[in-house]
Design a protein that fits this description.
Elements: E1 2-4, H1 13-25, E2 33-36, H2 43-52, E3 59-63, H3 67-76, E4 80-82, H4 91-98, E5 103-105, H5 109-114, E6 120-122, H6 127-138, H7 141-155, H8 160-174
Parallel strand pairs: 1-2, 2-3, 4-5, 5-6
């Protein structure tokens, strides 16, 4: 499992860790959680939470990662966990989809919009339901294979070319004929 976090408490990292602890408690299969990103002042509380849940050997907090490593983490995870309920656009969601990652995600409006047509296990940001969502995806190899294709396709809606075409169309609709960039 992979979770990209930051020092923003809205990332839901503590709930992700609690849900992962429940998954581990109810599973005999080996599972791991990687929490990447700059946690800042939240790093110590996250490390303490991991220790208090007995997850020391099962959760890695890598800190900031390079773009190349981020692609590897998204691509190699059984699922990417997006637990934020307050997203402006959903860039993390789009990055995960572009890498073919299966998502376990909170149903934030921006996440739902970006992930339209993708394979997502939607879950509230509560440890019990999130643990159930983890269980639903972690052992489903066929679903991960399907998501690898479907989610990459869903991400293509946001390519630079598609975005440029959309912007051109919108600007064209806004401009009156003969008034394009005319001085005032």
């Amino acid at each position: 499992m992979f979770h990209l976090s930051s020092d923003d408490p809205r990332e839901g990292t503590s709930v992700v860790i609690d849900a992962f602890a429940q998954l581990v408690a109810n599973s005999t299969d080996p599972v791991r959680l990687i929490v990447a990103g700059e946690l800042g002042s939240r790093r110590q509380p996250v490390v303490e939470l991991i220790a208090s849940r007995g997850l020391g050997g099962l959760v890695d907090t890598t800190g900031p990662v390079t773009d190349e490593h981020l692609v590897e983490l998204y691509s190699g995870a059984a699922a990417t966990v997006v637990a934020s309920t307050d997203e402006g656009f959903g860039l993390q969601t789009l990055e995960a989809l572009a890498c073919g990652s299966l998502l376990v995600a909170a149903p934030a409006a921006a996440t739902r919009e970006v992930a339209a047509g993708a394979d997502v296990e939607w879950t509230p940001v509560e440890s019990g339901p999130m643990a159930a969502a983890f269980e639903a995806v972690v052992h489903d190899h066929a679903r991960r294979l399907r998501a690898s294709k479907v989610n990459r396709e869903a991400a293509r809606r946001f390519s630079w070319e598609a975005t440029a075409r959309c912007l051109d169309r919108l600007l064209g609709e806004m401009a009156e004929p003969g008034q394009w960039c005319a001085p005032a």
